[in-house]
Amino acid sequence: MNHFTKFDNKELGQTLIDLALDYKKDPRKDQQKGQGKRIGCVFLNPSLRTRVSTQLAASNLGVEPIVLNMDKEGWALEMRDGEIMNKGTVEHIKDAAAVLGSYFDMLAIRAFPSLTNREEDINDFIFSQFVKYSGKPVISLESAIRHPLQSLADQITIHENIKEKRQPKVVLTWAPHIKAIPHAVANSFAEWTLGMGHSLTITHPEGYELDVRFTKGATIETDQNKALEDADFVYVKNWSSFNDYGKILSTDPSWMLTEKSLSKAPNANVMHCLPVRRNLELSDEILDGNRSLIQKQAENRIYAAQSVISMLLDS
Amino acid sequence: MNHFTKFDNKELGQTLIDLALDYKKDPRKDQQKGQGKRIGCVFLNPSLRTRVSTQLAASNLGVEPIVLNMDKEGWALEMRDGEIMNKGTVEHIKDAAAVLGSYFDMLAIRAFPSLTNREEDINDFIFSQFVKYSGKPVISLESAIRHPLQSLADQITIHENIKEKRQPKVVLTWAPHIKAIPHAVANSFAEWTLGMGHSLTITHPEGYELDVRFTKGATIETDQNKALEDADFVYVKNWSSFNDYGKILSTDPSWMLTEKSLSKAPNANVMHCLPVRRNLELSDEILDGNRSLIQKQAENRIYAAQSVISMLLDS
Amino acid sequence: MNHFTKFDNKELGQTLIDLALDYKKDPRKDQQKGQGKRIGCVFLNPSLRTRVSTQLAASNLGVEPIVLNMDKEGWALEMRDGEIMNKGTVEHIKDAAAVLGSYFDMLAIRAFPSLTNREEDINDFIFSQFVKYSGKPVISLESAIRHPLQSLADQITIHENIKEKRQPKVVLTWAPHIKAIPHAVANSFAEWTLGMGHSLTITHPEGYELDVRFTKGATIETDQNKALEDADFVYVKNWSSFNDYGKILSTDPSWMLTEKSLSKAPNANVMHCLPVRRNLELSDEILDGNRSLIQKQAENRIYAAQSVISMLLDS
């Protein structure tokens, strides 16, 4: 593993899950492994959980994390090759990536999509530039189209909570929101769930089809009730339209997940990546009840990041 | 001691003061005590002295401090139970507190009052939510109505500077300001000074009476000259009106503390929590003269925080 | 060396260069030297490279760096003595410097010029105040008129890249920009290059003469082609007018450095302090070609800071 920006293969996925669970039992067991190493955590967009869980993960391994918030006004990066930089951007990504590469042993980067230019977003350009010009291992802390550390934490949580021998039924359900939300979490959840060999049903209102590159192999079902029947894991997430790019096509409150929505899924565990808008995406009764795995997912973010950093230290 | 959000009792107060003075002599004496522990320092409002002194205190004990500035636009916490979160708040305090509780061994939180809704402010709701949902020890870095680490530093400073056997005369005097300032420092200073068994005189223009929950037992005197007579310690602080909640009722410059105000208090030491507005609250001559204990108070912030973190590590 | 805010003398300059090159070979060789020490890095203006390189340098020496971003709204420092602070400033520099001095073993400070009041800027008032009131060693992370850590890194880079016995020809050339840029980097580059005994040619459009306090001894040449002839090191930098203070007098694109500009300087190495505006100050062909020492300068920032901190630890 040279970088960690997306799902690669099932074997690697399982190795990462197993290593994460080892660390969860004994977070400091590899405290000496990263001594003298540094990870630069670059945020082109704000972060709370991701930032802290990555810092803790690094620190558990003896790696020194340094956080750079480049989302504040005045440090806009130029992305286009050959551009005459006589406008708002102050530094070219080539130059910034090369400097950061010379300062750190490893880089972790968050960069959200514009949600206005689909072609630019789906090429995940910023990550390929950092990989190319930094010369160091790059970890995605959420890109325009993927959030692999979240998805790894999600798979760890599913793995821990599978109670029966049979294949679990995993459902990804769209939920209402008031803002236009990126596709990254939904895309990555589909990519990892399918990649790890689980069956996946995705349910959403018409017009909310995700990029088929991520959902190929999943069952798409626009009837939420039908999709949720007998579900074992229900992942709740809003996203904006992919076809009518970045648009909000529906805020229909009947899509909010409630106990009633799960009347035919008595054993369903409910998941969400946080932050969650209560009583808009998910009802209080579920969030505060026994079905919720949400706090466990958040805690597993630490061990997901720790297993990734640990494997990158090996390579 | 399970949390540190207010004055508890005189014995505990004295234990904290004594421990702080031990640390002041040898800041690293318990360097091993907190190895492997982490404190999350959450700022819903900006901070300089409080942030740095807490970081230094933690680090002196081997505790790793991680700072989270949640005051920036875009991470507004929802405080109300049952709210449909379809407006500006992005995460419920329940969820944020639970995640932070799973990430850290201890939390330290700063949250100022609105100064617009007295009932909400005086219930110190944010702190009780963090205590309830984080499941970890919580330290107040200034709440809507209290600033106990400042007050502990103040008591340490008084303790160090008592020269005579007799009880010192402690005076809290209101000072002019151009902004509406919270009551937290004044409330806590009264709570701790009275709690530690000192006599306290509070002087302010009419209309500036503090919440009696904090000032019960103090002498209230609206004639500043009379109040200052023979004072040993004079604490200068502005606050907005509590009765006419959050309002500025006076900016009368004659309330600024000067050498002349202290003409009948030749041995008075002058205190202030900083930042201070020179020549508005306090004159240059006092700040730059020998009476000022203000820099000592600021330095004692480190040892106040260190004794609190140390005691919470024990429990 | 008690502080590091400007060029002092050639012998000290050479000592710093040599020590930096030692650290570059073995960054952790003095890992124990700064154990238990702390450096407060105070940014009144934003920073990326300077902040990170200083953190890394401190950490290489075992010194704990703590970053304070005071550039955000709400922490404006009062600079004027005797001022009645009833306006926007919230704390006097005297008080802030004294507190920071009591919290840290060493301070590093960034404070840009206003570019509106020349007299205030050229006196570098903020630095003299921090030196006076903090009582601790002060390092400049770029002041109104100097950027000595950048210049030390530049001299290290020149030192590493001198190929021949003869004196190199060093040229500082003005470049176009769309913003009014401070003189600090240009001033300091001149001060250090001349101070280290190199010959220096400075070329710029008329009206862009730098403060003679920094350029005395340099050859001033308004014909860029003539200035660049046979150059060994070409330092590219924009600055605003000093005489017509802070004004942009030219954006003439013919001043951008390109391969063509260097047609009579076949062996020229090109330098820039970053961030660089591509195809405005410097062409892509140079930045991406073999002449560029720019990434080396950025990397040398770490060792420049490390040698300075190390020498201040000795004193």
The separation of the N and C termini of chain A measures 7 Å
Please tell me what the overall shape of chain A is.
globular
Total of domains of chain A: 2
Mean pLDDT of chain A: 95
Rg on CA atoms of chain A, Å: 19 Å
> How does the major sheet of chain A shape up?
5 strands, parallel
Residues in helix, % of chain A: 25-40%
pLDDT < 50 runs, ≥5 residues of chain A: none
CATH class of the largest domain in chain A: Alpha Beta
CATH architecture of the largest domain in chain A: 3-Layer(aba) Sandwich
Give the largest chain-chain interface (CB within 8 Å).
A-B, 25 and 29 residues
CATH fold name of the largest domain in chain A, please?
A: Rossmann fold
CATH superfamily (homologous) name of the largest domain in chain A: Aspartate/ornithine carbamoyltransferase
Structural class per helix/strand content of chain A? alpha/beta
Which strands sit side by side, in order, in the main sheet of chain A?
9-8-7-10-11
- Beta fraction of chain A: 5-15%
Q: Based on the structure, what is the oligomeric state of the protein chains?
A: homotrimer
Pathway (chains A, B, C): Amino-acid biosynthesis; L-arginine biosynthesis
Domain Aspartate/ornithine carbamoyltransferase Asp/Orn-binding (chains A, B, C): 185-311
GO biological process, one term (chains A, B, C): L-arginine biosynthetic process via ornithine
Organism (chains A, B, C): Algoriphagus hitonicola
